[in-house]
Amino acid sequence: MAVRVVIVGGSFGGLTTAFELRHRFGPDRLLITVIAKDRRFTFIPSLTWVATGTRSVDKISFELAAPLASQQVAFVQETVIGIDPDRKLVVTGRGEHPYDFLVVATGHRSANEAVPGLGPFDGPGHSPMSVAEAVELASAVRDLIRDPGPVVVGAAPGASCIGPSYELAFELDHLLRRRKLRHRVPITFVTPEPFLGHMGMGGAGKIRQLLEGALEERDIDYHTSAAVTKITEGAVELGGSVPVPSRLSIIIPPLAGVPVVADTPRLANLKGFIPVDSHYRHASLDGVYAVGVAVAFAPVAETAVPVNFPKTGHMTEQMALTAARDIAARIEGHEGETAELSARCVLDMGDRGVYLAVDPVRPPRNRIPTVSEGRRWIYVKRAFERAYLWHAKRGRSLPTSLGW
Fold it and tell me: Is the pTM here over 0.90, yes or no?
């Protein structure tokens, strides 16, 4: 009888897990089902480009059904409304899906409610953390170009995805300079990090000095250990400081677990994230794995304003590969190997890029972090996006030694 694997989520973690498992076992031995509420895969790292008008959503997304079918993976486009770990069932609005192994790759829920006024649909603040929000932000950027005014970009207390806030600050600076409008748009960067480049991992090599110099040479004011407390139509309010005037406010929110995960007894912690071991197996529920943003990670260190452990697409793929290989090993009667998470990414700075590599993510590290700045990294980032999408559309895994 074939082993049943159900994967909840059709983004990086879900696709990587499905492709890796199918690479190891044919459909006669392993029945794989991917359940996702969205029918399309979106290359999330490019949402900042959608927000600044250099990409359309169609260019960074594709239909999931065809590549999954090419790998003989069943695709169910439905919303999961319940998970029953005791009966080993995933419940959707249309039926039940039994499993032997469950991989939760649901991603996150943006906890925008943590900052009053952080809309975009119920307040003046903006965020690029979903397709709808990025498209709405692109409209706000167009309004800014028509009617320039001050901009605040940054992250809220407890954020764990801080990199895009740096990218948006640099990308907006570059966009406005090209349009000869930068002199009419003061830009302020606000971050809960104790220093620039902390990014939830305690910093890395010379990234702090590089970012300080980059913001200063671009005339971008910045506030570290800043706690965004409220966003109004005309300002961003910071705890213990004077409000920063702003016509356009872009703030990365803290993340939380999706409702179905948070509401399943014994599955998640109080924030809705799933505790796992080094194989990304659930701490106590048999056959349950979690990968990506759904995983619970402790912060690297306590900071004056909370900064959570970073979660990136590259790290999600590492988790997914470890989980898939452990499932495969358990099917064969043994246990898979584990490894510390590393991080590699290219940060868009508008007119150039920065390549950053750390191993492992948590200090102290085995290697001195790599920090490389140059125009070539912009071309590398664009090429990687295209290569990733080309392979993923065809049901192929893409080696991510470069990271992203």
Answer: yes
